[in-house]
Amino acid sequence: MPGMIELKNLTFSYGGTAPIFEGFDLQIDRGEAWAVIGPSGCGKTTLLYLMAGLRHPSAGTIVIGGSPITRPRPQTGLVLQDHGLLPWATVRDNAKLGLRIRKFYGPDGRHAPPGARIKREGIEKRVSYWLGRLGIEALQDKYPSQLSRGQRQRTAIARTLAMEPDLLLMDEPFSALDANIREDLQRVMTAFHHESDITSIIVTHDIEEAIFVGERILVLKGAANREPRVIENNMAGLENIRNHPLFQERCETLRGMLGDFL
User: Fold this and answer.
1) pLDDT-based confidence at residue 194 (cuts at 50, 70, 90)
2) Nearest Cα residue to 36 out of 225, 252, 248, 179
3) Which of 17, 112, 190, 207 could bridge to 237 as Cys pair (CB 3.0-4.6 Å)?
4) Which DSSP category does 156 fall into?
5) pTM of the model
6) What pLDDT score was predicted for residue 186?
7) CB neighbours of 107 closer than 8 A, spacing ≥ 6?
8) What are the residue ranges spanned by the domains of the chain?
9) Are 228 and 25 in contact (CB under 8 A)?
10) Contacts 24+ apart (CB under 8 A), 249-252
C-alpha cells in the first residue's frame, strides 16, 4: 500500500557539490510520528524542505498523498525554529494569518485545500482553540516583542495547527528553549499527534527529543545518504519516559549510530 510520503530514487546536491542524498528511498505511512537526526550538514533540514516543496530534487520524485510534489502543498504545515511571526501583529492576529490568507484566495487548491471555504467565525473558533490548547490565550493581545521565546514558538505552532494540516513538518522547533519549556511543548505535540491522524516529522539534533517524539527515527550521515537507517521506537510519548529503565539504553544505541556516521 502506498505511504503518506514516498521518496523514490531521491538525489539532491547543492550547486555541483557532492550529493547529500543519492538514490534514496523512504516510505512514511499516514499517522506516523518520525524524528530525523544526524550530524550537522547531513541533510536533515534539506530533507524537510524537499518534502515541503521548498527545494526540488536533482533526480527522483517525492510523492505525498498520492501526488508528486513540485511546489508547496496547502495541506502541509511547516514550523520553523525562528518562528516567522509578524512583529506588528498581535498573538491572535499572527495565529490566524494562514487562515486569513486561505480565506482571501478561497479553496483554489494552491493556497488552500480545494472544496472547503472558511468563514470568519470558523477562523476565530479554530484560533481560540489552539491558543487555549497551547496555553497562550491570555497573551492574545500582546506582540512578539513582549513574549518569551517559548511563547513565540507556541504562537507559531498555533498558526500552523489552526490550518488543520494532514502533514506537519518541524525544523528543530524547540532547540532554543529552556529544558522545562521544551519538554512541555514536546508533551503537548505528542498528545496532539496521538489524538489526530496527522503525520508528523521533526528534525532535531537532540537524542532525547528524538526518542521522546519519534515512533520511528531516521538517522542520517554526513556523507551521501543512499540507504535509510531507521530505528523502531516504541517508547515515543511514554509518560515519564526519561525515568524508564530502557531510556538511557535507547539513547546509547542512537548515540552509537551517530558516532558511526561522524
Assistant:
1) confident
2) 225
3) 190
4) H
5) 0.89
6) 87
7) 113, 114, 115, 116, 117
8) 29-55+71-75+166-262, 82-164
9) yes
10) 250/211, 251/207, 251/208, 251/211
| DSSP category for residue 54 | S
- Neighbouring-strand partners of residue 217: 35, 231
Please tell me the distance from the alpha carbon of residue 70 to that of residue 79, in angstroms, as a whole number: 20
For residue range 36-74, list pLDDT tens digits in order: 999 888 889 999 999 999 999 999 999 999 999 998 888
What's residue 229's pLDDT? Answer: 92
How far is the C-alpha of 246 from the C-alpha of 226, rounded, in Å?
Answer: 30
The residues, any chain, with a CB within 8 Å of residue 81's CB and separated by 6 or more, are 171, 172, 173, 175, 176
- Do the bridges between strand 216-219 and strand 229-232 make them parallel or antiparallel, or are there none, so unpaired? antiparallel
C-alpha grid cell for residue 252?
546509547
Report the first-to-last Cα separation within the chain, whole angstroms: 35
Judge whether 29-55+71-75+166-262 and 82-164 match in fold.
yes
**Topology annotation, domain 29-55+71-75+166-262:** Rossmann fold (3.40.50)
Say if residue 86 is exposed, middle or buried (CB neighbours under 10 Å; 0-12, 13-18, 19+). Answer: exposed
- Which of 87, 74, 171, 168 shows the shortest CA–CA distance to 130? 168
36: enclosing H helix or E strand: strand 33-37
